[in-house]
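Page 47, continued from p. 46.
Same chain as before, 122 aa.
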Amino acid sequence: MRRRSLFTQVLVVNTVLLGAVAIVAGAVAGLAAGEVIVLAALAVLAGATVNMILLRRRFAPLEDLIQEMEKVDLSRPGSLLPDSIDGVGETEEVERLVALTEPFRGNPLSVRANIHNQAESL
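Result:
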């Protein structure tokens, strides 16, 4: 049996939660059963669409890493990782985080202050 991808698992959980919230909200608002079903269907459809758009790109590198890790045979000595994984984070997110923290390297309080200042400016 093939396992579901992390992306699929997150998508299903988010969709179920949105549907449940829509049903409860419709019931609390006193809507008719048909209206609650329509509300839940629209919430599930909108939520699934937005999640697919936003999360697919974010989960792709992680899914690749999981697939490569599943190929590793821990019982064999020597190089455990395939050549395609070099241990260097080359994703846009890692580069962005490094650029954010580079001026404060070596001083954790400066990094914390920088994060706090950025949060306040939002």
